[in-house]
Write a structure and sequence with these properties.
By secondary structure, the protein is of the alpha/beta class. Helices cover 35% and strands 23% of the residues. A five-stranded mixed β-sheet has the order 1-7-6-4-5, with helices on both faces.
Length: 347
Amino acid sequence: MLLNQAFRIKLTTFSINNMEKITAAITGVQGYVPDYVLSNDELAKIVDTNDEWITSRTGIKERRIMKDGASSDMAVHAVNGLLEKTGTDPMDVDLVILATVTPDYPFPSTANVLCDKVGMKNAWGYDLIAACSGFIYALSTGSQFIETGKYKKVVVVGVDKMSSIIDYEDRTTCIIFGDGCGAVLLEPDFEGNGVQDFILKSDGSGRQYLIQPGGGSANPPSAKTVEDKMHFVKQEGKQVFKFAVTNMAEVSADIMVKNNLSSEDVDWLVPHQANLRIIDATANRMGLSKDKVMINIEKYGNTTAGTLPLCLWDYEKQLKKGDNIILSAFGGGFTWGAVFLKWAYNS
């Protein structure tokens, strides 16, 4: 009796140890940005600024603005392109996680609207709010659904129509933000590629420095909130810069240490595109040369949840199967974090 029980325990242990480990791999990426280009020179006609001032402080030369439509409309372009590129039937998608701070409506979720517009009728979905860290939060969350073995196809979207909440008379914010969307498909991988690890952080005491104060239950919409411009983004740039430089750099270094990665082991850093000086500080902290850093801030500005997938989209042709990639972000809240993944395919 005891011998049989011991045999069964040993057999169970052997089976668990020899099960194929499932990781969540990105198997496709697609982006979308609106056609309209808002250059620094055009902004200088609206607010007291100039191209040299913006470029020297942020690295931004232009940003894309969506004149008509909502966040879900940008997401439709990105996700339709993603499904076509990967040969995925919309009906086969299990779950959609959409990161945004500019949803179409307070409810229903923009993920649900997107599923309806694209025809992902068998998928359930929800929105995730973590400001500029939204995509890494959503990517980390989506990876867990794949790793359980329950879901086979998870679409992760980062999209923001920041122009809808920006005051173009406020120089501290209007020079920074643009509109855009990126999406990735997560699928099971049995070769060790995909998401390897993540570190996610938050500190709500930083909310006062980067916030949209109006529109929620704290300050419901009213004539007064509109008059006081409370529905626009408010930022204390120096405080945000200080926190971002420190925390984004540190969490990127921390995930390297946690996974025994040297700077030579890291093939690419995908940093949030908020400010070129923050990007440079993060790369320096990690010991990475600039040729290992994805940068497109000069074209799109800060698209909030859209920056990281838009970088992957722009650099996709340079990525190779097995590349070690670290994604890093910092956003309002405060929120920040890093994801370590191995790229799963050759373009």
